Amino acid sequence: MDPAPKDVTTLLKDLSGGKQQTMAALVPLLYSELRRLASHYLKQERVDHTLQATALVHEAYLRLINQREAQWENRNQFFGVAAQLMRRILVDYGRARHAAKRGGNSGKVYLEESVIVSKQRTADVVALDEALIKLAEVDPQQARIVELRFFGGLTVEQAADILSISPATVKRNWNVAKAWLARELERNQSDV
Asked: How many domains does the chain have?
């Protein structure tokens, strides 16, 4: 059974108030959701990916506990940050793998991009990250919505809550961002 959002929010506010021991109580409550989020990410990766969901959760946890200055407001914000951290971990992992194979038979780290592009196409996680960085320069809110919806697996309503905007605005920006990213990824692929 999922922990009550109110309990999690209370613990997050305690953590923001400087009670670092709260993280020890918080993580067990949220571990299954963090694991689900990690599994969601890894299902979109290539089949032979060597990083496991447990390792991704643990790496994200290590980075979360180093967020000492974070002002946690609620569970949606927490999962938004966790989603960002997991994305960053996978991008770093992909870059390191690509760098290790550079100069020879370099392999790609694929991210199944079924939401943004057709089911038959995949996008390199590094290329997607670069496209998201470009999108953030053009429209930071749209880039944040992609992170929350696609990478974080959040609903329209949860993303709207985190960003303090209406669900209709999230839907509209989500659709525009998907089209922009699809065009950018296709442009990058044709340059290769």
From this structure: 1
